[in-house]
Amino acid sequence: MLAVMILYCDVSKFRTIDQADYPPRQRTLIIPTSKPLAMPSDMQQILFATEGIKYIREVILMFREVPNATTALLDMLLHCCYCNDTFTLSVMMMIHGQVSSAPTNELKHILILLLELLMMEDPLQGKRLKLAVEGNNNNGLLEIIRKCTSMDSRRSYQCIKFLVHLSNKCSMAKEYLMTISVRWQWAVNWLKKKMSEHYWTPQNVSNESSTGRSFQRTMSAQDTLAEATALLDELNTRDDDGEHIENDEEEEYVEGDSNTKMEVNGSSEGSEVNGNEDSSESSKTLVQDDVGDLDDIDT
């Protein structure tokens, strides 16, 4: 109920960054009124004061414990995170804690929340992406994947699958992941190795809903590996195309420079030839004049 009330309230005065040219976020659960309601002071204390972190923690836990009742909570969190750096950081840190420690069969709706948060377009989107993947002090999803590969491989797999799914849904995320591909290519290689080490599991076994901690070879995992590999291949193709373009430009430059030199040399040689011809003609004229002078003297 509180989440729905918050959605009707104006939170723009709590924003920490200007909206700039980004479109306003549309609340999905309610029909916005012509003028948002002013937020009561006690509600402000619950959300944006020092004690607000407690409310955020309870909301995030609801995504694990009562996932079917989180539609309003999701809409409310996005509503408050929009252009709000402080609130965003609190939510992201709580999500990170859950992804790191919650049972893997309870991560699905936590990751849905994270996906929606990272896809939200505002001036903070790039910062949220970096915070989710790399974290503060290198404690993001990549670090979770690395730490869990041995003892909690199912958690590592879910994080890899999330990153692949995110890149398919969000172009900014895809570009960002491609710029740091050297930092997660090892994770794709790890998944490829895990797939080769395991036999196919029954169709009713899932790495998302089962309570075990060990990775299972499933069709979904095979699809995730294929998509991750395709993403890396696309990056390699871009790099190769870029190198070809640079090489072609260098060859054109060298060829053009050589032609210029040939033209210059040709002009110089022509000038020298013409110069020699002119000198010969001048010499002949001088000789004839000298002969004429000698004739005059004899006469």
Automatic annotation (TrEMBL):
Residues 259-286 have a biased composition (Polar residues). Residues 2-211 form the DUF3517 domain. Residues 235-245 have a biased composition (Basic and acidic residues). It holds the Pfam family DUF3517. Residues 246-255, 290-299 have a biased composition (Acidic residues). Residues 234-299 are annotated as: Disordered. This is DUF3517 domain-containing protein. It comes from Patiria miniata (Bat star).
